[in-house]
Amino acid sequence: MAVDIQTNVTHTVAFPTRIAASAGSPHIFDVKLTANHDNGVFLTLGDYITLGTYKEGVSKGTITGTIVEQATNGDYFVEIDTAGKGTVFIYMPEISPYDEKRFRKEELFYNASGDVVKGYELTYKDMVSLSAAGFTNTPVVGKSVTVDSTTGKLTVGQ
Q1: Residue 15 in contact with residue 107, Cβ under 8 Å?
Q2: What is the mean pLDDT of residues 128-141?
Q3: How many CB atoms lie within 10 A of CB 50?
Q4: From the centroid of its chain, how far is CA 117?
Q5: Exposed/middle/buried for 128, CB within 10 Å: 0-12, 13-18, 19+?
Q6: 94: CB partners within 8 A, 6+ apart
Q7: For the segment 51-107, what is each residue's pLDDT rounded down to a tens digit?
Q8: 144/132 Cα distance (integer angstroms)
Protein backbone atom coordinates (compact mmCIF):
# COMPACT_ATOMS: atom_id res chain seq x y z
CA MET A 1 0.00 0.00 0.00
CA ALA A 2 1.36 3.37 -0.99
CA VAL A 3 0.39 6.88 0.07
CA ASP A 4 -0.08 9.63 -2.51
CA ILE A 5 1.14 12.70 -0.63
CA GLN A 6 -0.36 15.00 -3.26
CA THR A 7 -3.33 15.91 -1.10
CA ASN A 8 -5.35 17.14 -4.10
CA VAL A 9 -5.58 13.55 -5.48
CA THR A 10 -8.52 11.30 -4.60
CA HIS A 11 -8.21 7.51 -4.81
CA THR A 12 -11.04 5.04 -4.30
CA VAL A 13 -11.98 4.17 -0.74
CA ALA A 14 -13.22 0.56 -0.69
CA PHE A 15 -14.13 -2.18 1.74
CA PRO A 16 -15.14 -5.86 1.41
CA THR A 17 -18.41 -5.27 3.28
CA ARG A 18 -19.95 -8.74 3.07
CA ILE A 19 -17.82 -11.21 1.11
CA ALA A 20 -17.96 -14.98 1.50
CA ALA A 21 -14.18 -15.19 0.91
CA SER A 22 -13.52 -13.33 4.17
CA ALA A 23 -15.10 -16.31 5.98
CA GLY A 24 -13.04 -18.85 4.03
CA SER A 25 -15.16 -19.53 0.96
CA PRO A 26 -14.42 -19.36 -1.92
CA HIS A 27 -10.86 -17.91 -2.00
CA ILE A 28 -8.60 -15.01 -1.14
CA PHE A 29 -5.64 -14.84 -3.53
CA ASP A 30 -2.38 -12.93 -3.39
CA VAL A 31 -2.04 -10.85 -6.55
CA LYS A 32 1.22 -9.26 -7.69
CA LEU A 33 0.29 -6.02 -9.43
CA THR A 34 1.83 -4.94 -12.72
CA ALA A 35 0.40 -1.40 -12.51
CA ASN A 36 -0.78 1.05 -9.86
CA HIS A 37 -4.40 0.41 -8.79
CA ASP A 38 -6.78 1.89 -6.26
CA ASN A 39 -8.46 -0.36 -3.73
CA GLY A 40 -11.78 -1.63 -5.05
CA VAL A 41 -10.81 -2.43 -8.64
CA PHE A 42 -11.90 -5.71 -10.21
CA LEU A 43 -9.06 -7.63 -11.87
CA THR A 44 -8.42 -11.11 -13.22
CA LEU A 45 -5.78 -13.56 -12.10
CA GLY A 46 -2.78 -14.08 -14.35
CA ASP A 47 -0.05 -16.70 -14.29
CA TYR A 48 0.72 -18.65 -11.13
CA ILE A 49 3.84 -17.46 -9.29
CA THR A 50 3.99 -19.49 -6.07
CA LEU A 51 1.79 -20.84 -3.25
CA GLY A 52 -1.47 -18.98 -3.89
CA THR A 53 0.18 -15.96 -5.51
CA TYR A 54 -0.69 -14.95 -9.07
CA LYS A 55 0.34 -12.20 -11.41
CA GLU A 56 -2.24 -9.57 -12.26
CA GLY A 57 -4.17 -10.72 -15.34
CA VAL A 58 -3.96 -8.92 -18.67
CA SER A 59 -7.71 -8.18 -18.73
CA LYS A 60 -9.94 -6.50 -16.17
CA GLY A 61 -12.48 -8.53 -14.23
CA THR A 62 -16.07 -9.20 -15.22
CA ILE A 63 -18.93 -8.89 -12.78
CA THR A 64 -22.43 -7.52 -12.77
CA GLY A 65 -24.06 -6.01 -9.76
CA THR A 66 -26.46 -3.41 -8.43
CA ILE A 67 -25.90 -0.31 -6.32
CA VAL A 68 -28.29 -1.11 -3.47
CA GLU A 69 -27.71 1.68 -0.98
CA GLN A 70 -25.67 4.75 -0.13
CA ALA A 71 -23.95 4.58 3.25
CA THR A 72 -24.00 7.41 5.76
CA ASN A 73 -20.35 8.18 4.90
CA GLY A 74 -21.31 8.74 1.23
CA ASP A 75 -19.89 5.46 -0.10
CA TYR A 76 -22.04 3.07 -2.15
CA PHE A 77 -22.91 -0.55 -1.38
CA VAL A 78 -22.74 -2.75 -4.48
CA GLU A 79 -24.33 -6.20 -4.35
CA ILE A 80 -22.82 -8.73 -6.76
CA ASP A 81 -25.23 -10.47 -9.13
CA THR A 82 -22.72 -12.54 -11.11
CA ALA A 83 -18.96 -12.85 -10.97
CA GLY A 84 -16.73 -13.84 -13.85
CA LYS A 85 -14.33 -16.73 -13.48
CA GLY A 86 -11.02 -15.48 -12.11
CA THR A 87 -12.38 -12.05 -11.15
CA VAL A 88 -11.11 -10.72 -7.83
CA PHE A 89 -11.88 -7.60 -5.79
CA ILE A 90 -8.65 -5.86 -4.79
CA TYR A 91 -8.52 -4.62 -1.22
CA MET A 92 -5.72 -3.87 1.24
CA PRO A 93 -6.10 -2.07 4.59
CA GLU A 94 -4.87 1.52 4.56
CA ILE A 95 -1.91 1.72 6.93
CA SER A 96 0.04 4.95 6.89
CA PRO A 97 3.73 5.20 7.74
CA TYR A 98 3.19 8.90 8.51
CA ASP A 99 2.22 10.48 11.82
CA GLU A 100 0.73 13.60 10.24
CA LYS A 101 -3.06 13.41 10.09
CA ARG A 102 -3.20 14.92 6.58
CA PHE A 103 -1.29 11.89 5.21
CA ARG A 104 -3.59 9.36 6.90
CA LYS A 105 -6.76 10.03 4.88
CA GLU A 106 -8.12 6.87 3.20
CA GLU A 107 -8.48 8.57 -0.18
CA LEU A 108 -4.70 9.09 -0.41
CA PHE A 109 -3.94 5.35 -0.49
CA TYR A 110 -3.39 3.17 -3.54
CA ASN A 111 -1.70 -0.13 -4.38
CA ALA A 112 1.60 0.33 -6.19
CA SER A 113 2.91 -1.68 -9.12
CA GLY A 114 4.93 -4.61 -7.79
CA ASP A 115 2.93 -4.83 -4.54
CA VAL A 116 1.37 -8.14 -3.57
CA VAL A 117 -2.23 -7.44 -2.54
CA LYS A 118 -5.31 -9.43 -1.53
CA GLY A 119 -7.76 -10.42 -4.26
CA TYR A 120 -11.15 -11.57 -2.96
CA GLU A 121 -13.03 -13.99 -5.22
CA LEU A 122 -16.67 -12.91 -5.44
CA THR A 123 -19.88 -14.91 -5.30
CA TYR A 124 -23.61 -14.23 -5.70
CA LYS A 125 -24.91 -11.60 -3.23
CA ASP A 126 -21.46 -10.59 -1.95
CA MET A 127 -21.36 -6.89 -1.13
CA VAL A 128 -18.57 -4.33 -1.44
CA SER A 129 -18.53 -0.62 -0.68
CA LEU A 130 -16.88 1.97 -2.87
CA SER A 131 -16.51 5.73 -2.79
CA ALA A 132 -17.65 7.66 -5.86
CA ALA A 133 -14.05 7.51 -7.16
CA GLY A 134 -14.55 3.75 -7.70
CA PHE A 135 -16.97 4.40 -10.56
CA THR A 136 -16.28 5.67 -14.07
CA ASN A 137 -19.50 7.70 -14.00
CA THR A 138 -21.94 8.95 -11.36
CA PRO A 139 -23.20 6.19 -9.03
CA VAL A 140 -26.98 6.02 -8.56
CA VAL A 141 -28.78 3.74 -6.09
CA GLY A 142 -30.84 1.09 -7.92
CA LYS A 143 -28.70 1.12 -11.08
CA SER A 144 -26.80 -1.89 -12.41
CA VAL A 145 -23.00 -1.91 -12.75
CA THR A 146 -20.39 -3.68 -14.85
CA VAL A 147 -16.58 -3.52 -14.87
CA ASP A 148 -14.88 -1.01 -17.16
CA SER A 149 -12.46 -3.02 -19.30
CA THR A 150 -9.81 -0.29 -19.19
CA THR A 151 -9.71 0.76 -15.53
CA GLY A 152 -11.23 -2.15 -13.57
CA LYS A 153 -13.60 0.35 -11.93
CA LEU A 154 -17.38 0.02 -12.07
CA THR A 155 -19.50 1.65 -14.76
CA VAL A 156 -23.11 2.50 -13.92
CA GLY A 157 -25.70 1.39 -16.49
CA GLN A 158 -28.35 3.65 -17.95
Answers
A1: no
A2: 96
A3: 8
A4: 11
A5: buried
A6: 1, 39, 106, 109
A7: 889 999 988 989 999 999 999 999 999 999 988 788 999 999 877 676 776 666 777
A8: 15
